[in-house]
Amino acid sequence: MPTIRIPTPLRKLTNEQEVVQAAGSTVEEIIADLDKNFPGLKERICDENGGIRRFVNVFINDEDIRFLDEKATAVKESDEISIVPAIAGG
Amino acid sequence: MDKNSSPYFTNLKCRECGRLYPKQAIHVCDFDFGPLEAAYDYEAIRPVLTRELIESRPQSMWRYRELLPIDGEPSVGTQVGFTPLVKSDRLAKALGVREVYVKNDTVNYPTLSFKDRVVSVALSRARELGFKVVACASTGNLANSVAANAAAAGLTSYVLIPADLEQGKVLGSLVYGTNVIGIHGAYDQVNRLCSEIAGKYGWGFVNVNLRPYYAEGSKSMGFEICEQLGWRIPQHTVVPMASGSLLTKIHKAYSEFTKLGLVEAAPHKVHGAQATGCSPISSAMKKGVDIVKPVPKPQTIAKSLAIGTPADGYYAIHTMNETGGSAEDCTDEEIVEGIKLLAEHAGIFAETAGGVTTACAKKLVETGKIGRDDSVVLCITGHGLKTQEAILGKCGEPRLINPSLREFESLVAGELAALKS
Questions:
Q1: A90 touches B: beta carbon within 8 Å
Q2: B240: closest CA among B377, B108, B143?
Q3: Mean per-residue pLDDT for B321-343?
Q4: B11 three-state secondary structure
Q5: How far is A77 from chain B (nearest CA, A)?
Q6: What angle do CA B343, B346, B349 make, to 5 degrees?
Q7: In this complex, is the C-beta atom of A49 within 8 Å of any C-beta atom belonging to chain B?
Q8: Beta strands, E only, B255-404
Q9: Is the ipTM of this complex over 0.85?
Q10: Distance (Å, rounded) from C-alpha B237 to C-alpha B379?
Q11: Which of B192, B243, B312 would best serve as a mutation to test chain A binding (most A beta carbons within 10 A)?
């Protein structure tokens, strides 16, 4: 199953787990499965219209899904997905 | 309230949903990941912070301390800021506009960029919060400033930078004995790594978990501009954009001074400048949208502005729109021309970001976004000695002669007529 890296602000919902697993073949399915195991996660990652929130970045391996197919991006069993809050420059 | 807590700086507050948080080392809202921002009790500040009080204080950014987010006295970078605001009639003429002022942060103390402002706040706060190790993700200037200010304060520091930065910026961190980690990758990848490290190691990352404090330091540039103009808001301000944070904070400074009655409310436009090779914010602005499409592989000599995923891009666009400002971008050639234009007319040697600001200001005048009869402030944020590679071989070469008067005379013979006239 793909592994998901959970950022600090969301770990209260994952019992402080840094890395979790979820089933699915697209980012959207993965988020739905995450929400089943860790209720409330989807609401944090997605806005009321179901899109990824403005200040949330989702990476598959090292690629930002906004450069891929956004939520429809395909996910392989061996992929690592990172959820990373947007941060400021320097 | 804790008796050591500032009576003016009250909370952190989510910019998206307005939820309040305690003044800790946190930077995003638990609920929607919106950025947290410092919140103040302006009613408490208003009777205290007068023009007279500010003018009586030492000439540093800390003369506005009630509007900066720390609890006690600043302990790092107490002499940062209050850089010159230079009126340049020659530059005004070259740009084709009535009046130009250069806010000259190329001579900010101690590391010659505006980043000393943000680091002074971030590290003063880091000490209040008990951090022993401080760190940052940087395109160069922030790394220099964290390294220098941490060294002076006796804090251990780690700076993470893209591996391909200008030599001056790498050396300008190493010299302070900091731990420089070069990352094979673009700034955005460095940034992402840092947000993961910050969560894991509990370090004070100035632009990650200390971001709400760090970002507020940029306001001091806006406060100084107003005070140095004789307590008024400039008609136009041109600001370089990387993450977009500086632009939003300069506008916040103008708004706070207005709210406190330190300046009169006045129409003012805040314009943003980017390099065409990494222009996610100006592209969105020109399209009239507020969705910032990230740039995967920035390609520009303005490396300090090469942030493909600008965290404050959305807010920068709203600030420009709200004030009636515009965004502009310029090519590498135009950046070099901008650096030379500023140097040859104002006598100020800026890094590539300053070339971007100057070149974009010129375009804004040419396209009528800045009226020819108007007054402009250019925010010049870093020194040219840091990015010498960008102009090497593009400013001519010295003419070499032997120590002989005859050789000198034959060299300048053709130029004498011009000098006399």
A1: yes
A2: B377
A3: 98
A4: strand
A5: 23
A6: 35
A7: no
A8: 269-275, 327-330, 375-380
A9: no
A10: 7
A11: B192
The model scores a pTM over 0.90: yes
Is the pLDDT higher at B19 or at B417? B19
Q: Distances in Å between the alpha carbon of B371 and those of A22, B175, B225, B275, B367?
A: 57, 45, 20, 23, 9
SS3 B205: strand
Q: Distance (Å, rounded) from C-alpha B344 to C-alpha A70?
A: 47
Q: Which residues contact B218 (CB under 8 A, 6 or more apart)?
A: B114, B117, B118, B245, B246, B249, B250
Residues 297 to 326 of B: which have CB under 8 A from any A CB?
Answer: 307, 309-312, 314
- What is the secondary structure of chain A as a DSSP string? --EEEPPGGGTTTTTT-SEEE---SBHHHHHHHHHHHSTTHHHHHB-TTSSBPTTEEEEETTEEGGGTTGGG-B--TT-EEEEEE-----
Structure tokens at B374: 């108007």
Is the confidence at residue B378, as pLDDT, over 60? Answer: yes
Task: Classify residue B81 as left (phi > 0), alpha (psi -120 to 50) or beta.
Answer: left
Residue B294: exposure state from Cβ atoms within 10 A (0-12, 13-18, ≥19): middle
Q: For B95-119, write each residue's pLDDT tens digit.
A: 999 999 999 999 999 999 999 999 9
Is pLDDT at B62 greater than 70 in this prediction?
Answer: yes
The rounded mean pLDDT for chain B is: 95
Q: Does the CB of A26 have a partner CB in chain B at under 8 Å?
A: no
Q: Examine the pLDDT at B17 and tell me if it is beyond 70.
A: yes
CA trace torsion B17, B188, B81, B380 (10° rounding): -110
Residue B35 in contact with partner chain A when CB distance is under 8 A = yes
Q: Which amino acid is at B143?
A: A
Give the whole-angstrom CA distance, residue B320 versus residue B314.
10
Which residues of chain A lie closer than 8 angstroms to B199, CB-CB?
A: 7-8, 18
Burial (Cβ within 10 Å: 0-12, 13-18, ≥19) of residue B166: buried
Query: Over the stretch B241-293, which tens digit does the pLDDT of each residue have?
Result: 999 999 999 999 999 999 999 999 999 999 999 999 999 999 999 999 988 88
- Cβ-based neighbours of B402, under 8 Å, separated by 6 or more: none
Q: Which residues of chain A neighbour B317 with C-beta distances below 8 Å?
A: none
